[in-house]
Amino acid sequence: MDLAVFPAHLEQQIAAGPAALFVACGTGEFTALSPDEYRDVVATAVRVADGRLPVVAGCGGGPRLAREFAETAAACGADGLLMLPPYLVSSTPAGLVDHIRYVAAATALPVTVYQRANAVLDEAAALALLDIPTVTGIKDGRGDVDAMLRLVTAVRTSGHPRADAFGFLNGLPTAELSVQAYEAIGVECYSSAVLCFAPDLAAAFHRAVRAGNKDAVRTLLAEFYLPFVALRDEAPGYAVALVKAEARQAGLDMGSVRPPLVDPAAAHERRLAEVIARGRAALARLEV
Fold first, then answer.
1. What is the pTM assigned to this prediction?
2. Which of 38, 87, 102, 139 is catalytic?
3. Whether 129 contacts 104, CB under 8 Å
4. Contact at 8 Å (CB) between 33 and 41?
5. Among the options 38, 87, 102, 114, which is catalytic?
6. Catalytic: 114?
7. How far, in Å, are 22, 38, 187 from residue 59 at the CA level?
8. Active site includes 182?
9. What is the pLDDT of residues 105-153, one digit of tens each?
């Protein structure tokens, strides 16, 4: 861990004006961190943020280990938890709710449940989450808009006292591609991995979306986001490896991704630099 580079990286993201920071989550290689490293990451993020915005820490793995990560995050001063899927084991949606209930009980921190991989909710499970007081929302990483619409509708029309305040977040890799589809079903917030390496582009896209500037949204999609996703799809794990590679290209002395992830090939790193340059050239022509 390089705890000198990490604060500089955080400051770049904070300066772009996000609503919160996710640390030690998917893009942050949660699965590759030891418990001590996890503590260092979360504590450093809390110290750097210094109350300027919330810090949400990942927690996951088997139920007992996930509880330990949650307790560590709380002790470090994190403002919330992103509950990642349980390790390896698949179950029913009801079984997943039991897992969430067990882990959430470890702390008083608000919990966002990350739906992806083997963690799949149905309408009954989403409604059951309303009865777990510290579970405050669902982050979707599956990309099934029809299924997500069913969850949103079930919660919003449930009549439950927490229904209107319960949050939904688009957490797909390169979520900017699906922002408009998710907004149409009532999921207006999203997390941005691009903020980790090109905060100027991520913030400009967000402003364009919020202002309803469709021309700017289309231009940034065509000139940057779609070419970036085409490169991201060249190899499994590039959703993380490209983020780290571009942060290095931008001048932060980051190391390689940890196994089993692999760093981008040299030709792909060159393409990445070209994609970024193309995006910034488009941004210079826009008023956002």
1. 0.96
2. 139
3. no
4. yes
5. 114
6. yes
7. 11, 10, 23
8. no
9. 999 999 999 999 999 999 999 999 999 999 999 999 999 999 999 999 9
